[in-house]
Structure of Glycoside hydrolase family 2 TIM barrel-domain containing protein:
Amino acid sequence: MKRILITGLFLCAILVANAQENVLEKNKWSKEKASEWYAKQKWITGANFVPSTAINQLEMWQSSTFDPETIDRELGYAEGVGFNTMRVYLHSLAYKANPKDFKKNMETYLEIADKHGIKTMFVFFDDVWGKEPKIGKQPEPVPGTHNSGWVQDPGDPASKNKENFPALEVYVKDILNTFANDNRILLWDLYNEPGNTDKLTSSMPLLKAIFTWAREVNPSQPLSAGLWRWDFQELNEFQAANSDILTYHHYDDEKKHQHVINLLKTHGRPMICTEYMARTNNSRFSNVLPVLKKENIGAINWGLVNGKSNTIYAWNTPIEDGSEPIEWFHDVFRKDGTPYRQDEVDLIKKLNGEEK
């Protein structure tokens, strides 16, 4: 009897896995469809965006701290240099706290972005930084510390606990169904840097699950999950095989970046670099952005405005007194809209065709 039970469970697991594979293949975009979609877009250029008044995704989206006035002002800075796309992180806890308000705030954000001629890539899950996100008042920034308050979604060990998957499926499918045909949304980025923060392949079940849920909804926009660490072979293979548009992160100089581009071209799909530009790593607008323009690869830098996320400071290199670093790590503008470097803004405008 025990052997029969084990065999039955094994067969059931095989059937579930096969059904998942069928769903993933059924609605995946062909290379031809992906190329046709990409050819219709202007050169995709922009930044990862969180308003300067938010330390993380929860502070951005919770109704008590949602800040449309700052969002409007700062997306105006982006419009002024010709940026046409923002990559914006969502958070499942903000949805869980109040699904109706969360979707209303998404709609408000999209109205503001559209007014500025900006499309949006929304990001669902994230394996980076704080492991235990909590709803409610968020912490104040730690002076001089990069992303001191950023939080994972759904967290660790929450992302490994399959008991959480049904609620996450409701969230993902509700958002996708609500905005499945919204042309203000460019692309759905399903999972940011799976395996980061020492999670490694423990992120694979949730990564497979969110691609399956998204394929079941089959939105009009393409799906992706960006490659980011080249020794994560199992994760990379799955992400590349299941993304309609190939997205990736790269924070090194133009020569190393070009090498990665050459390797990724072998997949035969359009590409968007959804994270780059870390000045003290020699990933700069001056040396990387022209390469992305020449290769017709979308260019989404980190980030836009210096604020509570403290991303002008380098990873793991705090300045404890909070004084401004000699050279900013990320970001383009100060809070008042003044460019950190005018020569960078001039280059961005030139490549975006915004020169007067």
